[in-house]
Amino acid sequence: MEGERKARRVRWYERPQESITKYWNEEKIDDFREFCDLVVGYGGALSEDDYKKFYDMRETLGMNMDIDDITIGEVIELYKIAITCALNLGWESEANEVLGEIPNDVWEIGEFCKYAVEKKGMLLEFVPENLRTKEICEIAVKKKGMLLEFVPENLRTKEICEIAVNNYEEEDYRCPLQFVPEDFRTEKICNVVIRNHPDISESLDYIPKHLQTVDFFMKLIEDCGGYILGDVPENLKTEELCKLAVSRPYLVDFGVLRFVPEKFMTAELCEIAVKNDSRILQEIPEHLMTEKWKKLILEMEIQKNEN
């Protein structure tokens, strides 16, 4: 009948009980045999039972016997075991070799993709974008927040962005905010990132300007230390903010007087800084230096030389 929809073509992996010979040609079967040979070579990363499954499959395919008895379901199960093998390998290059030999049409299996991401969130990168469902993406970012990078833009909701920034790991050197849509860079999300991301200067590059207020930096200095003053825009530096900064732990090998505008550089502020950390003496302007501080600097130099 004209206009009648054509029946959808059945994909090979949708019939797990049927034989691979019904859907695979000799080249495809031979590729799978080579894949089994590769995994057997990394047998130390498999359990004894899983190793035997791959070994027996390789032998069956190699002898070209009973191939009609091999089902699609068995093949998919072996590809899942190969995921475990790859993740157990000590070298990333070896793991990538196994993962890279899993055919694209296997990564088109939604169930397989979900299994892979549940095993290791980083495998979201291998999942075809059209199969990166809300469920699979949430599984991934709950394991590793920076995987938000591989979440399709239409799925980067406020909810999944909050999940991602709350699952940030310190070894991730990039700021997760760069993958959060600007509309969702709320005060709540930005505060989480600031608290967790070690490079605050980079984080500030992605925080909306309207959130970067004097109060915002006051709290940031309270929580993180006086060195934050170096990242405060000049037009937001107030006397109160500068006094707070020099009174807080520096957490670095230098003081923060260098970041204090000249109009706020007073004897009172320098006194606060010195009480907080005597190392700051080296940064006090000459015109504000007192005899007491000069003597203290001399004593520190003598002590340093004696040590």
Q: Which spans of ≥5 residues are poorly predicted at pLDDT below 50? A: 1-6
Percent range for helical residues? 40-55%
Please state the structural category.
mainly alpha
Q: Helical stretch count?
A: 13
Q: How many β-strands, per DSSP?
A: 0
- What Rg, in angstroms, do the CA atoms define? 30 Å
As a percent range, the share of strand residues is under 5%
Mean pLDDT: 88
Large-scale geometry: elongated
Overall tally of structural domains: 3
Give the biggest sheet. Answer: none
Please give the alpha-carbon distance between the first and last residues: 96 Å
Element pattern in H and E:
HHHHHHHHHHHHH
Write the layout of secondary structure elements.
Layout (H helix, E strand, L loop, with lengths): L25 H16 L6 H16 L8 H17 L3 H9 L9 H10 L14 H10 L14 H8 L21 H10 L3 H7 L7 H11 L14 H9 L19 H10 L14 H16 L1
Structure description:
The model is unreliable at 1-6 (pLDDT under 50). Helix 1 (26-41) runs antiparallel to helix 2, helix 3 packs parallel to helix 5 (110-119) and helix 5 runs parallel beside helix 6 (134-143). The radius of gyration is 30 Å and the shape is elongated. The protein has helices at residues 26-41, 48-63, 72-88, 92-100, 110-119, 134-143, 158-165, 187-196, 200-206, 214-224, 239-247, 267-276, 291-306. With 307 residues, it is mainly α. The protein folds into three domains: 9-106, no CATH class; 133-206, no CATH class; 212-307, no CATH class. The chain is 49% helix and 0% strand. The chain contains 13 helices and no strands.
